[in-house]
Design goal:
Layout: H1 2-5, H2 10-33, H3 50-56, H4 59-92, H5 99-111, H6 114-127, H7 134-158, H8 163-170, H9 175-203, H10 207-212, H11 220-228, H12 234-260
Helix pairs in contact: 2-12, 3-12, 4-7, 4-9, 4-11, 5-7, 7-9, 8-9, 9-12
Length: 271
């Protein structure tokens, strides 16, 4: 009965096809129409790279894309550093006082609506009279993505035998040297996977960035949203196609890095 239930039937194939179509058909249509020669997004006018050329000649869009990349790289790096330290504290300091509270505060952004996170950060920046711009967006994205990095790194640390580090210290290594020589190389693929995940989340964030951005620091999602409100231009399809390609590449690399850090029979990261 189990083998019969796991068999690929027509119903299973139809359900799989319907699910994949629901998820990816709109994206596929967007990608196809990014090569449309017509100015009307709903009328096919033949194949052309015209709108990709328009994008690379649009100074405002290029500036927004450059801003998004700078924010994503900076926030992903900070999130990886802080998330790794938090994961080490939770994995190696299992009995410290306040661990449950620290863990709850760390993982709160995982389930917190982005509107609440963005609004609370906006109120914080207003309260401290901080000028909103590049660094406020970086801080906001670091707050959002740090917990994801902590989950990935903590999962890998949990799969590592702590006696390896203890053996290095027994042989004369200082704790910091033992971590850098033994533990860090073992968790390095998870650090790469966490960084790429944080980079992807930062790159396509709209809600939190819209609360914390300021004049001259609009990211690409904010710029696209402002353009779409006035009507969808074919250039938007080309921009979105490039973003989809970049994010797909980052996800593939992150998944490969996560697989490299996998212990036998254990998953290193929830990707």
């Amino acid at each position: 009965m189990a083998s019969r239930a796991n068999r690929l039937t027509r119903f299973n194939i139809a359900a799989l096809a319907a699910g994949l179509a629901f998820l990816y058909l709109p994206i596929a249509i967007l990608i196809v129409y990014s090569f449309n020669a017509s100015r009307l997004v709903t009328v096919w006018g033949g194949w052309s790279l015209r709108w990709y050329s328009e994008f690379f000649n649009d100074t405002a869009m290029i500036d927004a894309a450059w801003m998004s990349l700078r924010v994503a790289v900076t926030s992903a790096t900070l999130a990886t550093l802080l998330g790794t330290l938090a994961a080490i504290a939770l994995s190696r300091g299992a009995n410290f006082r306040g661990r449950a509270l620290f863990s709850g505060v760390l993982y709160a952004p995982l389930v917190m609506p982005e509107v609440i996170t963005g609004l609370s950060l906006l109120l914080l920046f207003v309260a401290v009279n901080a000028e909103r711009g590049f660094w406020t967006v970086v801080i906001a994205h670091t707050t959002l993505t740090m917990c994801f990095v902590a989950v990935v790194v903590q999962a890998r640390l949990g799969a590592i035998d702590p006696t390896l580090e203890e053996a290095a210290m027994d042989l004369g290594c200082a704790p910091a040297h033992a971590f850098l020589s033994v533990t860090l190389p073992l968790i390095l693929p998870s650090l790469a996977a966490g960084w790429m995940l944080a980079f992807t989340l930062s790159l396509d964030d709209l809600v939190i960035a819209s609360f914390t951005t300021g004049p001259g620091s609009a990211t690409l999602p904010i710029r696209i949203y402002s353009e779409v409100r006035l009507g969808v231009k074919p250039e938007i399809n080309a921009i979105c196609t490039l973003v989809v390609a970049l994010i797909a590449l980052v996800i593939v690399v992150a998944s490969l890095a996560s697989k490299l850090s996998e212990a036998p029979g254990k998953s290193a990261a929830p990707l």
